[in-house]
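User: Please predict structures.

Assistant: First:
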Amino acid sequence: MADMRPIGVFDSGLGGLTVVKEIIKELPNEDIVYFGDTGRVPYGTRSVETIKKYARQDEKFLLSQDVKLIVAACGTVSSVAGDTAKELPVPFFEVVSHASRQAVEKSKNGKIAVIGTSATVKSGQHKAEILKLNPKAQVITVACPLFVPLVEEGWYKADDIIVLETVKRYLKPILDFGADTLILGCTHYPVLCEPIKKVLGEDVTLINAGTATAKAVAEYLKENALENQNGGKSRFYVSDKPEFFKSQASILLESEVDRSEVQKVDINNL
């Protein structure tokens, strides 16, 4: 039996659109409701209590849109606020476990690197998931707090000296470690693939959490006969600056986003 309700996706800002892009590739007939908390980005520098509070508010908004499942397209929320899922009346998907599994499957030398926000790295969730799947794996984690602001400003090209030097500074420990696989532990980070590949080289496999999570969502919908065969529309909501969201969203989604499709929400009053 088909389920015509939309898929709900939320993130602290724009980065979660990289997950939306992958979901659209996997499930082109699904409707999507996206909430980007652009007024409170980034989450990665906040306390665990604050991140959980924000996650609950974001989830509450998506539930008000009658979604059939929720995707936390945010590495920080997935790492430190996943327990909010226990309170939800719909299935919940996070990006940490799916990315970790794919990294273990792809790595040949067992040396896996994880980059993420400060909160994501501090949580140790990726490392725990990886070691659960492969106890012999060697894992290095590196916090890259400046990556989100770079992406939010639209600075992500490899020929931008500021971007390239920032990436070099953060990824030096990973080069020294000899990892052959790198988890992009924040959904903003796939936007920086070009400079990251330039620094690490083509021999290092990059794991896009959005791709892994989209496949998991597709499998769940198919197994439970909850697919929508007649949809394909997306609606976007933000907590601040819808004009800025529109200009950047078109780049991240690689498709045009009409201004009328982006609405501002007062998330604090939900």
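Second:
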Amino acid sequence: MAGHSKWANIQHRKGRQDAKRSAAFSRVVREITVAAKMGGVDPAFNPRLRLAVDKAKEQNMPKDKIEHAIKKGSGELEGVDYVEARYEGYGIGGAAVMVDCLTDNKTRAVAEVRHVFSKHGGNLGTDGCVAFQFKHCGQFIFAPGLDEARLMDAAIEAGAEDVLANDDGSFEVLTSPGDFIAVKGALAALGFQPDLGEITMRAEAETSLTGEEAVKMQRLLDALDALDDVQAVYTTAVIEE
């Protein structure tokens, strides 16, 4: 990625996520509840729930709060009935944006997402208008300085689909969503701890934005991310600083 630091962009994103810790907690609770409802309460047989519980533990969420969310999903405790919704659109410079929601009111969710797009210079599009620009996959990001050959051998042996070396020296290991947990465990057993690991919608191509366009795009992304119903925001935009 000429002229772009993947590592700097990841660190920037992590910093913004860490600053919104309370929102992150509520999103993980919501994900645990929905995962338990859809796939059962045993993480050993429900990969989506296991991922959500692992994320909760990484954020130091208390065990009783995790168990409470699982019980809500199972129906043992009364809880909100969330449904999944995905909205697609365009941001500044034509950059693609995809917004995943868990909501108890889809009419409200789409209205709020549309309002944010319109207010910040973007456009809400139709279903499928930008989805083809993203790949659903597991992604691990490693800081610069690792032994590339050793990481590549370990990742491929663990079942990863690809290992990418970025221009700034950082590395990405990509997996199928179904292999994410196994690859994560195998890499950890060999001493490879990623700085970021998640199942995501990874941009197949990127749109670099600088100056005022970058500022406007960041405002749009932040405003979408601040909506209560939003779980995740994906974009092809790369904010150059």
